[in-house]
Amino acid sequence: MNLDDTTARLLALAAELGLDHYPVDFELVPQNFMLEIAVYGMPVRMHHWSFGLRYIHQLLHQHMGHSRIFEVMFPGDPCRAFMMDNNSLAENTLVTAHVIGHADFIKRNALFSRFMRMAGGHILEQSAARAHSLDQARLRHGQRAVETVLDAALALEPHIDIQQALYRPPYPEPAETATPPQPDVFRQRYRSLPGEPDLVPAGPRRRHLPPRPEADLLWFIAHYAPELKDWERDIFLAVREEAFYFYPVHACQIMNEGWASYWHARLLREADFLPHERYLQALRAHSDVVRPYGNEQQMALAINPYHLGFAIWEDIIERDSLESARRICAEEDDFGFIRNHLSAKLAEKLDLFSYQARADGDTRVSSRDIHDVREAILGPKYNYGAPCITVESMSDDFSLVLRHDHQRDGRGLALVQAEQVMRYVARVWRRPVTLHTADFRGTARTLHITQQDVVHTSARPA
Question: Domain SpoVR-like C-terminal, which positions (predicted)?
């Protein structure tokens, strides 16, 4: 039985078991193409030097045996799944079942559904069209000009407000002020006296922007940067749209990978049409996918989302039911999933803990309390993994003031990296930019950058 026949029978079995999903297009691709997809995030995406650095990093990890990519799957209608052509038949059988589980999750989950409604189900085609437009912009405006805009947009990629709509209009214009009352008879006579100057009404002042702290930095710069050209604005909005597309993948990673792992295991177990030897080989691959990163001799300092998600879903289904799991699948993201369904008993069984890495290189277990464990898992997911930075104000001269809520983040910024991002932003804002933040010690810092890329840093006790 070849892979096409196996795929058809697995899809039929999935339908019998109640899985409901968008159509899935499967494609076998060579290893180098799979690596590029994993690094760029899309088969065809806008070119930028930062992706080259990610490619080298991924290549080194792969050569050192720390990373192996079985498949890359893109949500949409249809979903698109790319599998390695040098995977064994048993491995691609498991991958096919895994992708079917992903497709079921994507159609059920409210967060994915919301972003699908906003962005549509054809992100790969849209990404390829944007890449083509960017190539045309390079020809018209030059490599350096395009790179300058991309540097800023990609540096701010996670700084979106996912509570807002993808296609969000500018701030509404303020209501017109009421017509001023006509002066009374006394005031008219007073103004007519000799030597009294005519009162010239003050001109309208520019309204205060933003009307409230604005977390969607990409959107704000695209709409309010004083000298941004249309093609530059298009780049910011394109990066923002792709950030919206990837957000559910980020926010539901543990749930999604766990759900797909649960269903690939169940589909393989109930696929009595599979040759016995292929089933055993696929089962060994399953064990590699859902095992924790550590082992009996060594503790893992990172969570395997496949392992954790798979264990929680099995626990939910065993304690409650598959229907209860499907309801959770539809309603939750990782924040609710971990807080509501990772129990203290399961965390103890999985040997989960939070830890502290000290400056001297020593790493120690800090807590096994379930609340601490949950927050340690979810900490990197807050705010798309980015620091909480908002636009505080835009002055009359269009100087931009940003503020980092480091108390909410629980950490300061690495100032060297922050200064570089500020340079990127100032080059497209084309006016002075100020950021109020804190360093890793919690000392309040103010970074101010001029149009000439000169950074001034001041500090005061937090």
Answer: 394-439
Last residue of a domain, one of 233, 248, 268: 233
Nearest-angstrom CA–CA distance, 69 and 302: 18
Which uninterrupted H or E stretch holds 60?
A: helix 49-63
Q: How many CB atoms lie within 10 A of CB 24?
A: 18
Partners of 74 in beta bridges = 80
Q: Which residue, 233, 268, 291, sits at the end of a domain?
A: 233
DSSP 8-state symbol, 83: E
Structural domain containing residue 31: 1-154+209-233
Q: How confident is the model at residue 165 (pLDDT cuts 50, 70, 90)?
A: very high
- Partners of 28 in the beta sheet? 83
The segment with the largest mean pLDDT, out of 165-174, 260-269, 351-360, 434-443, is: 260-269
CA distances to 18, 43, 100, 416, 429 from 73, in Å: 21, 11, 10, 35, 36
Q: What is the pTM of this model?
A: 0.86
- Alpha carbon of 132 to those of 65, 79, 137, 222, 229: distances in Å? 35, 22, 9, 20, 18
Model pLDDT for residues 99-135, shown as the tens digit of each residue? 999 999 999 999 999 998 998 878 888 889 999 999 9
Neighbours of 135 (CB within 10 A): 12
- Tokens coding 326: 């499907």
Q: Considering the domain boundaries, does residue 433 fall inside one? A: yes
What six digits make up the tokens of 269?
């177990």
User: Residues of 44-71 as b/e, b for ≥16 C-beta within 10 angstroms?
Assistant: bbbbbeeeeeebeebeeeeeeeeeebbb
- DSSP string computed for 320-353: S-HHHHHHHHHH--HHHHHHHH--HHHHHHTT--
Beta-strand pair 24-29/354-357: unpaired
